[in-house]
C-alpha cells in the first residue's frame, strides 16, 4: 500500500448481497475530516475502539455510505488524492 493511505474494513453484518466486510483504502488525512467523525463515533460505540486497538479499523456503515462520505471529502479537499 502507498504511504499515507490506510485500509479500513467497511460493511454491515446484515448488508444485502452477502458481501460482508470489504477492505477499502483512503488517505490517512481523511480520518481527521469532520465528515468521518460520525463514522468514527459509530465505530467507537459499536466496537469500543481505544487508542492502540489491534487490527484494521472497522467502520459500521454500508460500502455505499463510505464511498459517498469519501467522495464528499475529496470534493471539499479540492480533488481526489
From TrEMBL:
May I ask which residue range the UniProt record assigns to the signal sequence? none
Q: Name one GO biological process term.
A: response to auxin
- Top-rank lineage group of the source organism: Eukaryota
What the entry lists under InterPro entries is as follows: SAUR_fam
Identify its protein family.
Belongs to the ARG7 family.
UniProt-recorded name of the protein? Auxin-responsive protein
Q: Which organism is it from?
A: Musa balbisiana
Amino acid at each position: 500500500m502507498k504511504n499515507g493511505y490506510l485500509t479500513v474494513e467497511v460493511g454491515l453484518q446484515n448488508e444485502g448481497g452477502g458481501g460482508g466486510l470489504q477492505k477499502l483504502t483512503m488517505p490517512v488525512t481523511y480520518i481527521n475530516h469532520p465528515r468521518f467523525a460520525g463514522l468514527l463515533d459509530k465505530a467507537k460505540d459499536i466496537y469500543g475502539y481505544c487508542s492502540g486497538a489491534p487490527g484494521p479499523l472497522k467502520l459500521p456503515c454500508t460500502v455505499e455510505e463510505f464511498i459517498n462520505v469519501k467522495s464528499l471529502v475529496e470534493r471539499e479537499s479540492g480533488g481526489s488524492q
